[in-house]
């Protein structure tokens, strides 16, 4: 045997051994025809390989932070909740460096050696290093850095949050007559310098298609949704009004160190429709992140006994079964398909968000920023905070109400123990909204529209508005994100970045899975929240 032939022979043997060790089938010899089962297994293998190759060839973005970790002394502009803190509310630098070490190695043992504060645990920092093998890996996606701590943009975001805290108990239906809302709009117009004027009709809203149309709350958070054979009215247990948390410095300080909350929410004895910021904040307090979008899918599917002959009215026009006279969708292009992908994309979106949160940005939460504002205005460390925030009416009126400059929180525990940027709820919202708009017709009209009465005890009809599925899905995504802002735990830019990242996750997943579908269809077609069109078609070899 020649040297070259021997090398080929040994290479073939090694390749076959490698396939056997990996559990993958070796190539069949020409003398052994492939069975149908073997052909399908080979096709599935090729599909997996092509999807992996497609993902691996996408350009790798550069992950860049805003530089606050090195520019602002003593890590004062970085997330540190749950670590040991000094009485000034600043993290112990040595303790913070144990977090940095764990994030630099990704090793479980180093995460277990992070210096802890008092009781509450950090929320899953190690998941920043988990691999995502469907769609894009979490480390293959990126977002722009958040506004810097000392920037005018951060100042305007904090002013908005102080006003949202002041407006928690103003009913959305009363915004047009509320003095608090009027004062907030006047100040935000001066600070944010928006292209769209901020008025009582536009304040605290998103600007995407549909977000400014009709009621503040999406119809998918108002209309009853089917659960099995039962319609579930969307009235919820909501907190009693007028009770905020972390407004006194001792309470604020111990919460920063990880001490569990020692005050509890007091709840209204009557369930209410979502009527204002406090109600919306509590809705996103304990939801399972894609819950709102799952409910929206159930509303659009309308699968209850009365609609057994469902006419598929809301399915996307590219759904291959929308006009079929022979088949209907189920495992593919049907209810199980939609609901499965909503849950599936949620964990992928969270992995992407947690990588950005922990490994890249580590942005401090608004409650901690409020602590820096309080310290700055009471003669403590002279943090470089924009005068637009320090001298704002929002901060002044907050002091008049609470005798501190701290940002009032809606939750007894304040923010969760993971960094602010991007918002996890918003990242999931971006991913799930993309899926809903891919599966359902964005131009379909949502009929019989309602909003909550100012007391939240009933619904009232909205007349003279034409709302679309796509617009109400966009509004739903924003409602979910802004609910976390009303709670005082996220900035607006956390949500904006999260939407985009979540959409990227969903698009990559659909690109991965579109070739697994055998139906003839024109691909997934939808618009991003920013209005950009997306088309995902089958790849050809």
Plain-language structure description:
- The protein contains 17 helices and 8 strands.
- The longest helix has 27 residues, at 335-361.
- Helices cover 42% and strands 4% of the residues.
- The protein is mainly α and 541 residues long.
- The strands form 4 sheets. A two-stranded antiparallel sheet has the order 1-2. It has a two-stranded antiparallel sheet with strand order 3-6. A two-stranded antiparallel sheet has the order 4-5.
- Mean pLDDT is 92; it is low at 1-23.
Spell the H/E element sequence: HHHHHHHEEHHHHHHHHEEEEHHEE
CATH topology: Vanadium-containing Chloroperoxidase, domain 2
Total number of helical segments?
A: 17
Structural class: mainly alpha
CATH architecture classification name: Orthogonal Bundle
| Beta-strand content | under 5%
The largest sheet, given as strand count, sense and whether it forms a barrel, is: 2 strands, antiparallel
What is the gyration radius calculated from CA atoms?
26 Å
State the strand order across the main sheet.
1-2
- Unreliable residue stretches: 1-23
CATH hierarchy, class: Mainly Alpha
How many strands?
8
Q: Tell me the span between the first and last alpha carbons.
A: 38 Å
Note the quaternary state here: single chain
Count structural domains. 1
Silhouette: globular
Mean pLDDT: 92
